[in-house]
């Protein structure tokens, strides 16, 4: 790409990431920064590449529906390289202010260079059809009627798979009405944003620029009608998340960290700092271990476990699923302040290595082991721990805004295996906690099968004698909209955090 215009290199970088995501199961937030560096893309050009890449990945399902309608060839029969180029072109046409002629000609050029002249003329014909109507018109054409199929309509308009829309509706207890103003809200959410000259903020981090932001009118404050909060939750997934840092307790406080990095202290976690529009990049505070990039919701659930009332000893803590180590680092620093020690367990070897790096200098023992082995090895004694965190492997539906490809990669069929594993780990965590001790069950997912239903089944079965503890006071007093308890579900559109779930349970004998 040497010699090419920076905007063309930005498009090419976005396209290469799409290929890596779809061909090699790569993660965009890891692949993109490497390509930006390799191709010397910075500032506005890096922001443009990020916008195109993240936006196209987030909107893939909707773009595919448009392309299918605009093509005489089924998507499944298209060459993979052509399909990704068309997605990138259609994204520019429908979701950005890039001029149509530039979106079409650069995409056709890309297809010509990767797949030859015949494919280029096919791409040209499809994109000209796509360019023939605006997003709103396309949505009206391809989305099911909201009256007959409200979930299907929201799925297309907000670019989420239907099973995720259904899961959010159930978790929010906000089932959309048969017919409503869905169309207007979704169109505003999808409003045009980037041009070649006016892309995402020039200094936007590769992992934070994204599809255009949420509709202010779709916030819970403006909500009220059935389905309004669901729309706000879906829109928040398409919003550009603010980078959150966690100050390491005992090493630096949030106010000082905020001053040093030019951010602002978080609203809810005493350790949180927001970097609005900023890139964490090579901040010395991160390099020196004074802080980590960590969503405020993750900070809150870990600190809530540490804050839950406890009688007796409070020096032996366990993190049963610790990789890559964000919560272990926070808990390790907090238990250090109490003169105690954390044991951090992780089943994947490379992730156990990440935990070791994250907890360097803290009183933490890292075990590369299966968390279900509680009671079977001396380092994991049954009844040996005062506080136990189970941050369970889950669908990750609570962090879709940070992982642009994730919503299309996960499928509902993943759920049954995950729920079973969560259940086995929960039983192991119950064995690990001492009588009188506290167990925190956390998922980065609001799916009821992974959250409230999992806890309800555990309390019904009582593998050890357990009672529920109200998690709300342990989270602090400032958090709004925490519901009736005793469990807590955070949401991006309510709290600006990932959608973390927390249940606190006490072993009573
Ligand atoms: C949600 S992540 C944990 C995130 C972590 N607590 C943090 O804050 O960085 C779940 C982790 O559990 C690990 N895991 C999966 N199955 C496990 C098992 N049987 N025992 C222990 N760890 C497991 C996964 O490899 C993954 O790293």
TrEMBL record:
Binding positions for S-adenosyl-L-methionine per the UniProt entry: 321-327, 346, 370, 391
GO biological process: regulation of DNA-templated transcription; RNA methylation
A GO molecular function held by the record: RNA methyltransferase activity
Catalytic residue positions: 444
Organism: Actinocatenispora sera
Flavoprotein in keyword set: no
Protein name: SAM-dependent MTase RsmB/NOP-type domain-containing protein
Family label: Belongs to the class I-like SAM-binding methyltransferase superfamily. RsmB/NOP family.
């Amino acid at each position: 790409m040497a010699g090419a215009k920076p905007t063309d290199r930005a498009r090419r970088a976005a396209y290469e990431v799409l290929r890596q995501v779809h061909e090699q199961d790569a993660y965009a937030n890891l692949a993109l920064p490497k390509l930006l560096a390799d191709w010397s893309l910075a500032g506005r050009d890096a922001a443009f590449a990020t916008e195109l890449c993240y936006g196209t990945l987030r909107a893939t399902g909707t773009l595919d529906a448009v392309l299918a309608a605009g093509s005489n060839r089924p998507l499944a029969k298209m060459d993979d390289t052509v399909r990704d180029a068309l997605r990138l072109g259609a994204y520019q046409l429908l979701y950005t202010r890039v001029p149509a002629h530039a979106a079409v000609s650069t995409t056709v050029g890309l297809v010509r260079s990767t797949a030859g002249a015949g494919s280029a003329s096919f791409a040209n014909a499809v994109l000209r059809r796509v360019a023939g109507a605006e997003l709103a018109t396309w949505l009206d054409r391809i989305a099911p009627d909201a009256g007959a199929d409200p979930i299907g309509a929201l799925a297309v308009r907000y670019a989420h798979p239907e099973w995720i829309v259904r899961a959010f509706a159930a978790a929010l207890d906000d089932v959309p009405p048969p017919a409503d103003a869905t169309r207007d809200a979704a169109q505003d959410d999808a409003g045009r944003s980037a041009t070649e000259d006016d892309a995402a903020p020039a200094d936007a981090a590769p992992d934070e620029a994204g599809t255009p932001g949420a509709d202010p009118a779709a916030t819970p404050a403006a909500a009220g009608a059935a389905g309004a909060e669901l729309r706000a939750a879906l829109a928040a997934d398409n919003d550009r998340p603010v980078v959150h840092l966690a100050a390491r307790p005992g090493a630096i406080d949030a106010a000082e960290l905020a001053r040093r990095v030019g951010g602002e202290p978080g609203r809810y976690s005493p350790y949180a700092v927001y970097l609005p529009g900023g890139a964490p990049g090579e901040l010395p505070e991160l390099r020196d271990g004074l802080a980590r990039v960590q969503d405020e919701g993750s900070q809150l659930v870990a600190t809530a476990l540490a804050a839950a009332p406890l009688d007796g000893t409070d020096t032996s803590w366990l993190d049963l699923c610790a990789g890559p180590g964000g919560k272990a680092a926070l808990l390790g620093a907090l238990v250090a302040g109490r003169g105690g020690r954390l044991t951090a367990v992780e089943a994947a070897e490379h992730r156990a290595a990440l935990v070791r790096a994250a907890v360097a200098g803290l009183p933490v023992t890292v075990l590369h082991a299966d968390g279900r082995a509680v009671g079977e090895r001396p380092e994991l004694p049954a009844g040996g721990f005062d506080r136990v965190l189970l941050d369970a492997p889950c669908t990750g539906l609570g962090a879709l805004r940070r992982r642009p490809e994730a919503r299309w990669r996960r499928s509902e069929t993943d759920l049954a295996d995950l729920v079973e594993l969560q259940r086995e780990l929960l039983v192991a965590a119950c064995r690990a906690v001492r009588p009188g001790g506290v167990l925190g069950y956390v998922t980065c997912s609001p799916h009821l099968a992974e959250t409230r239903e999992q806890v309800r089944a555990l309390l019904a079965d009582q593998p050890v004698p357990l009672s529920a503890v109200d998690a709300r006071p342990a989270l602090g007093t400032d958090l709004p909209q925490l519901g009736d308890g005793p469990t807590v579900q955070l949401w991006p559109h309510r709290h600006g955090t990932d959608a973390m779930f927390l249940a606190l349970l006490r072993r009573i004998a």
